[in-house]
Amino acid sequence: MDSRLSKQIQCSVCLGDFVDPVSLLCDHTFCRQCIGNHSQSSRGLRLCPECRRPYTMWDLRSNRVLRNMVDAVREHLSEQQSLRDRGASAAGTDRTTTGPVLESEMLLCPEHDERLKLFCETDQQLVCLICRDGDNHQGHKFKPVDEAAGPKKYTLALTTHSRISGVKLTPVEFIRFINCSFLLFEVKSTLSKYMNQQFPDRNVISDCHDPYLRVSSDGRSVTRTAKKGLFYRQRDYRPLARTHKTFQSGQHYWEVDVGEKRDWSVGVDEGCISNTNKDIRLQLKHSQGYCVKENGTESDKELSVKPRRIGLYLDCDRRQVCFYNADDMTLLHSSVYASSTPYSLSLSPGVYLQDRNADPLTVCWN
């Protein structure tokens, strides 16, 4: 049963557990590094390692459900192995009389420096002969250590066996859960393809015609290019891409996959509507760390974890902007604004960093 569970979380390229799994449009999933290495080694057309369908790096989508499942399965298998080890240890002590007894004979009383040869049934502790005759144990019942250990070893073995028997049923439920999760992922992928076919105007990011940015064909990803401009502008230049639409009423929510990028920015601004530099954004700067920028003013932001996906909530009616760690919906920052002008989602893939920050920013949910 454990082997069946392990195969469900196994990458077909490296044959190890998934690490940062990503899925292609054909719904096959691989470790991000594995498919990246495969893409670099491919000459010309990139083909899926399993079905040989062509793909591009724009097609990669983080599989958050599978990543959480991998962690859950690992924890489950680890707990099972731990219970088995305890059961084997308890069973072994039933077949021998030397293990724990010898250990107890080697233990010394911290008060009298004598061997702990007796077990006080009243206080449920090991004692030496001097402790037995002392005032603290007057009227107590005692047994030799080996005699007292027998029933307790038997009780421990029964308890451990009972726990292991109870766990034996859970892998079947785990397999069902995993199969259902994969089915839901397939349904989501199918619906996403259908929506993109039926509503091609769902593209999020507009083609900003900035030579330092490249927007994907589906309008959901933006990448920093390696183009070198006048005076090497790309070193500190953080170009922005914005949504087609502006928002002035209602509530709106986006999730942006930032992955392992070293430099990025996610937020809202007034775009080209005004020159007042009104914006609210959460940023990661490679040389500074996390910071919040509000209307041109930056302030450092301490985060306890490194988020891989940012949730951005815009409440136009309350004029409030909230940033979340989308993996567990922990609130990272909240701001209010006074302007009544419409806002746009604005993204920056950050500075180029000599190809060390080349991954795209991808809008995963809108």
From TrEMBL:
Residues 104-145 form the B box-type domain. It comes from the Eukaryota. One of its GO terms (molecular function) is zinc ion binding. The keyword rRNA-binding does not apply. Residues 77-87 have a biased composition (Basic and acidic residues). Residues 77-97 are annotated as: Disordered. CDD domains: Bbox2_xNF7-like (cd19800). Residues 181-366 form the B30.2/SPRY domain. The keyword Cytoplasm does not apply. Keywords: Metal-binding, Zinc, Zinc-finger. This is Tripartite motif containing 109. The lineage of its organism: Eukaryota, Metazoa, Chordata, Craniata, Vertebrata.
